[in-house]
Write a structure and sequence with these properties.
Elements (H helix, E strand, L loop, with lengths): L3 H13 L15 E2 L4 H7 L4 E2 L3 E6 L6 H13 L4 E5 L6 H6 L7 E4 L6 H13 L4 E5 L18 E3 L5 E3 L27 H15 L2 E7 L4 H6 E15 L2 E14 L7 E7 L15 E3 L4 E3 L8
Parallel strand pairs: 3-9, 3-10, 4-5, 4-6, 6-9
Antiparallel strand pairs: 1-2, 7-8, 10-11, 11-12, 12-13, 13-14
Helix pairs in contact: 5-6
Amino acid sequence: MPTPLSEALATLRRRHGDAVIRSGDSLGGIEAWPTGIPILDHRLTPGGLPVGRVSLLAAAPGASGRLTLLQALTATASRERVAVYLDLVGSLDPGFLADLGADLTSLLVIQPPSGRWGEGFSMARSLVVAGTPWLAVALPGADSLAPVRPDTATPVVQPSAAGIATPGASPLAPSGAGESPREPRRSRPRPDSGWEHRLSTLVESVSTRRAVCLVSAAAPLPPALGYAASLTLECAADGWEEAHGDVLGLRTRLTVVKSKVSTPGETAAMLLRYPRPFAAAEAVGRPAVVDLTLTTEVDNSLEVAG
């Protein structure tokens, strides 16, 4: 004999489909995207970055390796699928991504003209809803939380030959060089009123569309961002790796400070070794990841950025 509960369940399934209501034991485990870095996939984030959730690379302002790691993982993702990079820092270098082995034809870079976080989150959400499976978000440091004066706009961003938006003028170029008189000047990236709501809608879309979302941010972290993340890895610099007066890379320590998918507190050290020519006729090598905890070099094709 039907009960009120069974009738309510039947009505919801008829209206919205059978998938909207499932028993708890049918949900299964957390799906993950393998990064290709053993110390991440086997120690800090078992299986890789969680699918359908936001992961966060957090660090104090200054050198930490968070942006290098973000760009390296983006390069890896672009070789497998379409990847989106929301650049709210304004420092993305297509040449560096190419050195990391990125497939630039599979990489879409978003740089909102206004520089506002909320607009960038909305643009990223529309691509996630449309089916983009991998999203990286680069947020500026703590100084972006300060009030912005009208005269702090940066040069307009123009598309490069590779299809990636790059600054229209070099910091060393004469004033006005590379700017388009028909395009407005691009403001310094900054949070704006309502960005928290747009972030929450992006998080919801990432969950619904089963996308991978990795955010890099510098302290102090806005509470809304820390709350949105299911996984937070704290990045801390352990010093530069040097040889014969040259900087070879950055030693970075990663600590799981928050996790809804694994056990917090795990720590591992890695060396992010940068691309560099080792001989005049040799192609620029991709960075290697070295697990300093195990003192074992891993020459994997993930290769990290700075």
